[in-house]
């Protein structure tokens, strides 16, 4: 939510006159960043010459496509490792674990060599449940994230590109969906749907839960994407494409969307986090998918099985820890993307650090000011 | 002035959309909630036939039998709403829905409101400081906050209960006040207030811990961006004290997007709190909602959903007005 705000901010920053005005048409996303960075280093030059030289060198080192890719920072690597490990666990864990609903084990065993994470009240192996649950939650997260992204593009990019009446209507819908709290809507829909006969095998499946979560959570991305699409619309290469007679659909998909890739990735990741969290809450209340195991249904079982009251921490701590770790890992990746979209976030701390070092070495101009 | 007019118009449209959604959901989704609800009410009434009044109220809220046009149903629905009639609850028969909601709403508003303000102020102050000290070890604090942000509220609540209530026995496990000490329900006394505050500490801590990361991060990032603006350099060159630059120049501007995002973030807090109330059996609106959903008490569910939506809308509206007052740019360009 709040980091989304900074994204919006960086989006509207692109609309400022001058920012990226001299962009080369074939280097749309890298160029404004380069321009920003150049402006950045130009300003720094007035402060300390040594710093300016260093950051200019940093800009020069950036290759042609470097601007589009997240820098290989500690955040990105940590995030990728966490997310990768959890994904592998969800994919491979079910292959090595015993069936998750095998109740031939002693009940409520604490973690031990036989059952790594203990057993539940019904004698299910927690490790096995966790592996299947991770898979189930990841599936819901990915599907819901995709649905939300597609709707976000539909409402955000189209509104931003077409403008006029279409923009007014699409933005109005987006803002309405944005302020109506999502989870209560999902709860109401789930409560109606779970007792309906007309849906067949779809009723209370993971897929339906994912669709409902996706349909109710796209508005935030739409706002961010609209701001960015609005600023891209005024770029010269888009105007050139329009003059060349390209159809709007082609302009959107070929000229505009590729430049939104970092933002789209960030919004997708955000959607996945939201959906995984939403599924956990929904399932915890007993409104989740019935057939499959997710991290949320595990927590629901733990709640009904009095896990907290009986001190069976190994039952309810692991699923929540996986959710938190997954969310943190995905957010770290988003940080790395954020630093591409908004280069100030990366350059400013680096410059401040460099300046502080220079001051310490006796080369600086200020030792008490805002930059010290 | 047109800024305020636009905002009022927007919230009126949203208000209408929320109520219409509430009207359409039970009618468009498959299933027959009105029939289920009436069956439940009959059972709650010990098999005796329901009064004509009750049946009318339920069909107006959840959908009439075939034959009545959707438009007539819509008018009847609005008629009921404007009279403040939200039907009768089946899980707490024969209590009217409106009465149940008005008993539960203050609990949630006070708890969520106080916790959100604490979290917001703390997040802004700490975020401004971390952003000011950009490029130092404090930057490593930033990724840590994401962990807190990604923790499901209710799971954090479970862990807090397990540690502080079950293991250490410091705080009460469930409830909004001590039901044994006050069997007659809420009353206006210092003893009751103390009991309520004592019971609210863990739920409030849950909300603050889970939501502070977002504010802190947003503020820090905006602070970093603002600090590289030209007017900060000018302020520095004028020889203003760092303290003055931090508070009067950087923080004030950096806080604006956080204020603008307040209303939207509030939606997340409300959603998280609904599930959290289940953990603590807190007597608020979330607990009521869960009770309604689990007992298929559709009338109660509809009513609670409506009230939650309207409350969030009202909070957003107030925030918008304050935002327009703080940042004149939105008033003139918005």
TrEMBL record, chain A:
Which Gene3D superfamilies does this chain map to? MetI-like
Regions of biased composition (Polar residues) lie at: 1-10
> What CDD domains does the record point to?
TM_PBP2 (cd06261)
Give the stretches traversing the membrane: 76-97, 138-162, 169-193, 205-225, 256-277, 313-337
Q: Where is the ABC transmembrane type-1 domain?
A: 134-334
Q: Which InterPro entries match?
A: BP-dependent_transpt_permease, MetI-like, MetI-like_sf
| Bilayer topology annotation | Multi-pass membrane protein
Name its cellular compartments. Answer: Cell membrane
Q: Which Pfam families match?
A: BPD_transp_1
UniProt keyword terms in alphabetical order: Cell membrane, Membrane, Transmembrane, Transmembrane helix, Transport
Q: Where is this region: Disordered?
A: 1-31, 352-372
Family named by the database record: Belongs to the binding-protein-dependent transport system permease family.
| Name of the protein in question | ABC transporter permease
> What organism, scientifically named, is this protein from?
Agromyces soli
Its taxonomic placement starts with:
Bacteria, Bacillati, Actinomycetota, Actinomycetes, Micrococcales
From TrEMBL, chain B:
Q: Name where it's found.
A: Cell membrane; Membrane
Mind telling me which Pfam families this protein's record contains? BPD_transp_1
The regions listed as transmembrane in this protein's record are: 9-29, 104-132, 153-177, 197-217, 254-280, 300-326
Q: Which UniProt keywords apply?
A: Membrane, Transmembrane, Transmembrane helix, Transport
The highest taxon in the source lineage is Bacteria
The record's annotation in InterPro entries points to: MetI-like, MetI-like_sf
Protein family (similarity comment): Belongs to the binding-protein-dependent transport system permease family.
In Swiss-Prot or TrEMBL terms, this protein is called ABC transporter permease
């Amino acid at each position: 939510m709040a980091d989304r705000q900074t994204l919006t901010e960086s989006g509207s920053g692109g609309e400022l006159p001058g920012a990226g005005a001299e962009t080369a048409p074939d280097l749309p996303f890298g160029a404004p960043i380069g321009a920003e960075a150049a402006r950045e280093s130009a300003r720094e030059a007035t402060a300390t010459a040594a710093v300016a030289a260093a950051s200019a060198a940093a800009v020069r080192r950036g290759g042609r496509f470097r601007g589009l890719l997240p820098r290989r920072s500690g955040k990105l690597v940590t995030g990728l490792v966490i997310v990768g490990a959890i994904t592998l666990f969800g994919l491979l864990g079910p292959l090595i674990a015993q069936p998750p609903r095998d109740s031939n084990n002693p009940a409520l065993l604490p973690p031990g060599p036989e059952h790594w994470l203990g057993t539940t009240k019904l004698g299910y192996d927690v490790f096995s449940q966790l592996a299947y649950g991770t898979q189930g939650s990841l599936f819901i997260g990915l599907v819901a994230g995709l649905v939300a992204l597609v709707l976000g593009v539909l409402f955000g990019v189209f509104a931003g590109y077409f403008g006029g009446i279409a923009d007014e209507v699409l933005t109005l819908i987006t803002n309405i969906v944005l302020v109506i709290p999502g989870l209560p809507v999902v709860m109401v829909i789930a409560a109606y749907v779970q007792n309906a006969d007309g849906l067949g095998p779809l009723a209370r499946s993971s897929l339906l839960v994912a669709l409902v979560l996706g349909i109710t959570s796209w508005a935030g991305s739409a706002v961010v994407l609209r701001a960015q699409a609005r600023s891209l619309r005024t770029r010269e290469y888009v105007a050139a494409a329009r003059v060349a007679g390209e159809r709007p659909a082609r302009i959107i998909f070929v000229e505009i969307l590729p430049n939104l890739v970092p933002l789209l990735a960030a919004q997708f990741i955000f959607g996945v986090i939201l959906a995984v969290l939403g599924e956990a809450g929904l399932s915890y209340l007993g409104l989740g998918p019935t057939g499959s195991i997710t991290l949320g249904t595990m927590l629901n079982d733990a709640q009904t099985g009095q896990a907290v009251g009986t001190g069976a921490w190994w039952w309810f701590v692991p699923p929540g820890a996986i959710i938190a770790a997954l969310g943190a890992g995905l957010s770290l990746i988003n940080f790395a993307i954020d630093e591409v979209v908004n280069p100030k976030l990366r350059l400013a701390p680096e410059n401040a650090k460099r300046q502080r070092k220079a001051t310490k070495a006796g080369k600086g101009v200020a030792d008490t000011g805002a930059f010290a | 002035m047109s800024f305020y007019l636009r905002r009022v118009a927007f919230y009126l449209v949203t208000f209408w959309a929320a109520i219409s959604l509430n009207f359409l959901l039970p009618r468009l989704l498959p299933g027959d909630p009105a029939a289920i609800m009436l069956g439940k009410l009959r059972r709650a009434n010990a098999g005796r036939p329901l009064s004509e009044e009750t049946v009318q109220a339920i069909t107006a809220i959840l959908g009439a039998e075939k034959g009545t046009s959707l438009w007539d149903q819509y008018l009847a629905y609005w008629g009921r709403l404007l009279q403040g009639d939200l039907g009768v609850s089946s899980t707490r028969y024969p209590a009217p829905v409106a009465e149940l909601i008005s008993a539960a709403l203050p609990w949630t508003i006070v708890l969520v409101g106080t916790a959100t303000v604490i979290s917001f102020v703390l997040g802004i102050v700490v975020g401004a400081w971390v952003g000011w000290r950009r490029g130092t070890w404090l930057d490593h604090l930033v990724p840590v906050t994401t962990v807190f942000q990604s923790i499901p509220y209710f799971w954090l609540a479970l862990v807090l209960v397990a540690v502080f209530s079950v293991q250490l026995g410091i705080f009460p496990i469930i409830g909004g006040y001590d039901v044994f000490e006050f069997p007659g329900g809420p009353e206006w006394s210092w003893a009751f207030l103390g009991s309520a505050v004592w019971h609210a500490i863990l739920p409030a801590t849950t909300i603050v811990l889970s939501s502070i990361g977002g504010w802190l991060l947003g503020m820090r990032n905006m602070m970093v961006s603002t600090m590289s603006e030209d007017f900060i350099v000018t302020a520095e060159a004028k020889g203003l004290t760092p303290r003055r630059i931090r508070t009067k120049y950087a923080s004030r501007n950096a806080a604006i997007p956080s204020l603008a995002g307040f209303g939207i973030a509030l939606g997340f807090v409300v959603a998280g709190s609904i599930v959290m109330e289940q953990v603590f059996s807190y007597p608020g609106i979330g607990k009521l909602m869960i009770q309604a959903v689990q007992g298929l008490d559709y009338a109660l569910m509809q009513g609670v959903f409506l009230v939650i939506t309207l409350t969030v809308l009202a909070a957003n509206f107030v925030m918008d007005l304050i935002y327009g007052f703080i940042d004149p740019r939105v008033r003139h360009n918005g």
